[in-house]
Amino acid sequence: MKSLTYFLIFLNIHCLSRTATPLKDNPLKNFENNLSKISITVNNPEKYNLSIDFYIQDIDSFNNNDTKFLPTYYISESINDDKISFNIPKGKYIGFLQIHSKKQFPLYKTISGVQVIYFGIDDFYKKNEINFNKCEQNIVNSSVFYKKINRTNCNFFNIEKEEIVLNFSLTNKIFLNLEKSIPQSWFSFSYAFLHGPQPYPYALFLLIQVPFGFYSEDQLINFDNIHEF
Q: Which of 43, 81, 117, 142 could form a disulfide with 152 if both were Cys (CB 3.0 to 4.6 A apart)?
């Protein structure tokens, strides 16, 4: 039941992008003299596919109704060349930033990772009552993503500098994800051996046809310059 609750919250957040202002496509001309540049870079030597989800709400409107997170601005897209930049009106915000990585090895496995930074809110997108002296990064088993991830908790995001840089890196810390691997392996074995009587070489060929590999692994994404926040 708890996992279903997390899933519904996660789905609802992405639906809210319909009313929020996209940061990447909108020039935000009304704020052109009061913008801060956000630059995100990822150390990605193995060239994993990367994407970003960034949803923020100005802190004043959130404090007026802290039972509901209604993003003011958002960006959700792939990261090309391991970096991405966009502009945000200066101010104080709550919200979250997610960095996703994924790489598939056909007929073998899938490796994926997530780093989530919460600014002033918790996993349920409610006000975080804990006052952090500095951002704290921890390894957790996420019920939202069904994987082991690095999660960072910070206070509100104070955007006042002309440019803010966030650096991340894909680490060598990789964990087998049994929750995903067992269903995938079951699919491949059942397809190979329950498809009907087959000569052994043909059955083995069918066995390796599972499209995403036999198992899944979780990779940790590190927030490298966390000490600056």
A: 117
CA distance 175 to 198: 35
| Tokens 């349920």 sit on residue | 124
Whole-number Å distance between alpha carbons of 171 and 220: 6
pLDDT in tens, 20-36: 888 875 556 666 778 99
Residue-wise pLDDT tens digits, 100-112: 999 988 767 889 9
Rounded CA-CA distance 217/112 in Å is: 6
pTM: 0.82
Q: Which helix (H) or strand (E) holds 61?
A: helix 59-64
Q: Where are the beta strands (DSSP E) in 59-184?
A: 73-78, 83-89, 91-105, 109-119, 136-142, 147-154, 157-159, 163-177
Q: How far is CA 77 from CA 25, 44, 224, in A?
A: 11, 17, 21
Handedness of CA 164, 20, 89, 83 (dihedral sign): positive
Q: Are 21 and 28 in contact (CB under 8 A)?
A: yes
